Amino acid sequence: MSLILTLNAGSSSIKVGLYAAADEPREEARGQVEALGPAARLEIETGGERTVTEIGPADHAAGLARLVAALAPLRAGRPIAAVGHRIVHGGPDIDGPRVLTPDLIDHLDTLSPLAPLHQPHNLSGVRAALAEFPDAVQVAAFDTAFHRGHPWVNDTFALPRRFYAAGVRRYGFHGLSYDYIAGRLATDHPDLAAGRVIVAHLGNGASLCALEAGRSVASTMGFSALDGMPMGTRVGQLDPGVVLYLMGQGMTAAEITRLLYSESGLKGLSGISHDMRVLLASDAPEAAEAVAYFTFRLAREIGGLAAALGGLDALVFTGGIGEHAAPVRAQALARLGFLGLALDPAANAANAPAIHAGPVPILVIPTDEERIIARAAARALLTSAPDQTK
Ligand SMILES: Nc1ncnc2c1ncn2[C@@H]1O[C@H](COP(=O)(O)OP(=O)(O)O)[C@@H](O)[C@H]1O
Ligand SMILES: CC(=O)OP(=O)(O)O
Ligand SMILES: [Mg+2]
């Protein structure tokens, strides 16, 4: 029995999964190195047991090496047949998983300026995996792919048409998460899955997706992973006139990039933290204001996507904030009774799977991006080497 390793190299963490290769991969372990930097933490979870180790300073390369070493005993000599990678940006032409070739990796490198917090780390994960597991099939699963079927009005900006042809489009991200949620709806709530559903993926990065019969028709993120919701450190929706103004004030592209990606959002507004847990626990008025801005924008985005769908049959919350932050859900939904959205306060406080008290179901579904990556790797194994999953 061979194994699949999944890699999700993000801006501040690396997440891995270890799966027995099968049509539906069987999870054996998952792990992450969190808080990459001066005081990183290694977590491994297997067979219901979780161990946490403070590992001190670690960058992406060191973190990945620690994860691979920690998983080695669990492999028990079994080979890694495929490594599945989360790649945030695939550009206009990629609408599903791809086996990574040197040419494709070079092409994906050119998209790094569109996702500077993610794409370079995703690709260094690919290079590290190629060196560590040279015999494994390397497979990419893309955040953008799930959204490639957007109708034109939701895929374009109102720029001269040549920019659309040149790839300046509303891509949308978090597609692995939305793919997983669409799959869970199809199995657990087939009646809702056939209808109009908004999924709010609220993590360190945050976006919302409008699903019509399980397909993405609109997303709050656009060309880059900056637009839409304010995030941990990203600005979210911003009048482009502000960027022009800042340029006129003499800020360089690099300085504006750092401002919009790393110093804004919850961190910039609160001046305290990018972390929703910290803000909800704080007594500082700036923390409350940052949360209020987040929940106000969340309500606006839900309203906007409900219009894009022409109605709403269900709302789903996922991601670290979506799954756990009851006050965030409550503040946003307090504005949305007119859509038939009403919370059951006790169910909401308990992060229950169904938290509605009104006519439109409101669900909390933990996401699993790793499983979507593992499935992509398993399918690539079946086509490239049919005996590998036996
Ligand atoms: N119990 C909780 N209450 C409020 N926020 C939480 C809770 N647990 C996690 N979060 C928030 O979720 C966010 C991280 O989400 P996650 O989906 O894990 O991030 P990533 O995008 O890095 O995968 C952080 O802002 C964190 O504070
Ligand atoms: C695309 C994106 O924002 O990803 P993440 O939530 O992992 O930062
Ligand atoms: Mg995330």
UniProtKB/TrEMBL annotation:
Site entry: Transition state stabilizer: 174, 234
GO cellular component terms given for this protein: cytosol
This enzyme's EC code(s): 2.7.2.1
Pathway: Metabolic intermediate biosynthesis; acetyl-CoA biosynthesis; acetyl-CoA from acetate: step 1/2
Cofactor note: Mg(2+). Can also accept Mn(2+).
Subcellular location: Cytoplasm
Binding site for Mg(2+): 8, 369
Record-listed ATP binding positions: 15, 201-205, 275-277, 320-324
GO function terms (MF aspect): acetate kinase activity; ATP binding; magnesium ion binding
Cofactor: Mg(2+); Mn(2+)
Family matches, as NCBIfam families: ackA
Family classification: Belongs to the acetokinase family.
Subunit structure: Homodimer.
Listed name of the protein: Acetate kinase
Encoding gene, per UniProt annotation: ackA
